[in-house]
Design brief:
143 residues; alpha+beta; 4 strands
């Protein structure tokens, strides 16, 4: 018998997501809040700073970012941005739930951390966001 959870086991259980996803403490040096449409420029700036190091295959366009955070759309289910004292977005995690899923709920988590701010323990919050966004849904975990 396999020790792995069944694909029908709720994603929150398989991620071991807490009931409440705690915001990282102030010892990380960032102030945390939910991201919104007004943060689109800051999101694009963070993505551009990370692209220099991460060299992604593609990057979101300004229109894609604006659409993702538009309250009229339901794609972004949860988000969190970490802002430094100078107001710059240094870290973010976003959970996307594609509209139209009925039989199997898919949740996509993206986490982006400025290269200068990596290695400070921000990654655990990302798993909490995913579990809270769709706590009872079966799903696959890919990292």
């Amino acid at each position: 018998m396999s020790s792995q959870a069944s694909p029908r086991t709720p994603l929150a259980a398989r991620l071991r997501a807490p009931e409440v996803a705690e915001v990282p403490g102030p010892h990380h040096g960032l102030t945390w809040r939910t991201l919104g449409a007004e943060d689109a420029d800051a999101v694009l700036d963070l993505v551009a700073r990370c692209a220099v190091v991460d060299r992604p295959v593609s990057a979101p366009s300004p229109v894609q970012v604006a659409d993702a955070f538009d309250p009229a759309h339901t794609m972004v289910r949860d988000s969190l941005g970490g802002f430094s004292a100078d107001g710059a977005l240094q870290a973010m995690a976003v959970v996307y739930l594609p509209p139209g899923d009925t039989d199997i709920l898919r949740a996509f988590l993206t986490a982006t951390i400025d290269p200068a701010w990596r290695g400070r323990g921000h990654r655990s919050r990302a798993a909490g966001l995913a579990g809270r966004a769709c706590p009872a849904a079966p799903g696959r975990r890919r990292t």
